[in-house]
Specification:
Subcellular location: Nucleus
Oligomer: single chain
Distance between the termini: 111 Å
Subunit structure: Component of an histone acetyltransferase complex. Interacts with H3K4me3 and to a lesser extent with H3K4me2.
Organism: Amblyomma aureolatum
Shape: rod-shaped
Family: Belongs to the ING family.
Structural class: mainly alpha
Number of strands: 3
Order of helices and strands: HHEEEH
Helix content: 55-70%
Largest sheet: 3 strands, antiparallel
Radius of gyration: 58 Å
Strand content: under 5%
GO cellular component, one term: nucleus
């Protein structure tokens, strides 16, 4: 771009020179026309020497005009080459600038892609950690003794998980529960009024005050087929 600063002044100088050459050629053309007209009007009166002299003057003027014309053409070609040289230089600079810009864009995209990969990696790691945390909480909750829900359908059997501290102990009778650490706020069930443990079954009477019973307390070893009613509800149904 710095080289373009001198281009306007150089063009102006060349154009002024070409204008000056045009002016000289036009002056010579007028002189040639006058000499030619004079020669044609007085050719018969001129001697051979005078004719030769007039013709020589006209020829010299033509040669001078031709020189001016050649100089003008040469100057025009120089001006064209000068402008063309600057155009080629600008094209080269533009191509280099576009290449540099493309490299910068690729570098930015590469850094963005790398940053996005790192972000996705962090998000994936966070998801894995969340899953591990949820799995840990799930495993922790599975270790607790589940409480039978009163919203379960009647007749469903609930298999309570074993307490971790008593995993090696087989609970077969409500009296064994007395040795277990019991939360005073935990609800009690069954005829024995103890907390939930082992396999339990729900009474199909929707008005049953107890609802859930231990298999061992009601003399069951497996889930019965069809509807099942607790001893109290069965006796009341027989009375009806």
């Amino acid at each position: 771009l710095d080289s373009l600063e001198t281009l306007p002044s150089e063009l102006q100088r060349n154009f002024n020179l070409m204008r000056d050459l045009d002016t000289r050629v036009q002056g010579l053309s007028k002189n040639i026309e006058k000499l030619s007209q004079t020669y044609m009007n007085h050719a018969k009166t001129y001697t051979i020497a005078e004719r030769a002299e007039h013709l020589e003057n006209i020829r010299k003027m033509f040669e001078k005009a031709k020189e001016y014309g050649d100089d003008k053409v040469q100057l025009a070609m120089q001006t064209y080459e000068m402008v063309d040289k600057h155009i080629r230089r600008l094209d080269a600079d533009l191509a280099r600038f576009e290449a540099e810009l493309k490299d910068k864009v690729l570098n930015v995209q590469g850094s963005d892609s790398e940053s996005g990969t790192k972000k996705r990696g962090r998000k994936t790691q966070e998801k894995v950690e969340k899953k591990k945390s949820k799995r840990g909480r799930s495993m922790s909750s599975d270790d607790e003794v589940p409480k039978p829900s009163r919203k379960k359908l009647k007749g469903q059997v609930s298999q309570s998980a074993e307490v971790p501290l008593l995993q090696s102990i087989s609970i077969s009778h409500p009296s064994d529960v007395l040795d277990m650490p019991v939360d005073p706020n935990e609800p009690t069930y069954c005829l024995c009024h103890q907390v939930s443990y082992g396999e339990m079954i729900g009474c199909d009477n929707p008005d049953c005050p107890i609802e859930w019973f231990h298999f061992t307390c009601v003399g069951l070893t497996s889930k019965p087929k069809g509807k099942w009613f607790c001893p109290k509800c069965s006796s009341e149904r027989k009375k009806k």
